[in-house]
Amino acid sequence: MLHSINSFNLLVSDKISVERSLPDMRRPSCRNQTSSPLFLVSDLPDTSVIIVFHNEAWSTLLRTVHSIINRSPRELIKEIILVDDASERGLTRARLLGARAAEGRVLTFLDAHCECTKGWLEPLLYRIAQDRTRVVCPVIDIIHDETFAYIKTFELLWGAINWELHFRWYPIGHSAVAKHRGSTSEPFKTPIMAGGLFAIDREYFYDMGAYDEQLEVWGGENVEMSLRIWQCGGSLEIVPCSRVGHVFRRTSPYTFPGGRGVGGVLFQNLARVAEMPVTYAR
């Protein structure tokens, strides 16, 4: 019964402290970076962290918030904005509400069932400080939906879409690794982002059009925004030195308007994305 509420083991989640410690999954080269002059806090922009939640378990939501507070330099967190989407407005519109209230120079969007690890924030903000048109994503590790064990994932994966516009992870390949001289800690470009966890300059977020408010509830917004970023003078990167855990659920616990399942809403949104113009105004 508890599993059916959130599509993860709520009993186990509730028994785990919101202040639990996590292993440092970063490579040694990444750990050295955060103590280098490159990541001086005074040189980095601050950020508003925006979290949308809908019927979320309190234990996972609170662990998300506590992990941000405990593993981020206080000077870099302008605010944490929680948007309770107790409606049918959907993810994109709820995120837009949070963005409109935000005051930080950078908007960092996270899902409500994440846990940030040590040194997760500085590498993201550093890349944006160098170029405000960069949209950057952490490596997304796995938090097991039954045991809540934190599981390290392979860093060198980028996001892409198949012919049905469904998001998939693919290895970046030897040529991309060679471009970075074999380093697995260097940021690399990704065609499409997963969409749940990313940081973007607040002004650039609006310059490139923000979210499409016509997308319903959930699904496809990551594809639409990724394509628009690339066509509006920006770029998408995955930053291996930034790692955030995410609870991946095998089924969706949510209900959708009109009795439609997740597939019906997703296909409707992807159809809208497919019909959009190929070129956006710059």
UniProtKB/TrEMBL annotation:
It comes from the Eukaryota. InterPro entries: Glyco_trans_2-like (IPR001173), Nucleotide-diphossugar_trans (IPR029044). One of its GO terms (cellular component) is Golgi apparatus. Residues 48-88, 89-205 form the Glycosyltransferase 2-like domain. Keywords: Disulfide bond, Transferase. One of its GO terms (biological process) is protein O-linked glycosylation. GO terms for molecular function: polypeptide N-acetylgalactosaminyltransferase activity. PANTHER family: N-ACETYLGALACTOSAMINYLTRANSFERASE, POLYPEPTIDE N-ACETYLGALACTOSAMINYLTRANSFERASE 3. This is Polypeptide N-acetylgalactosaminyltransferase 3-like.
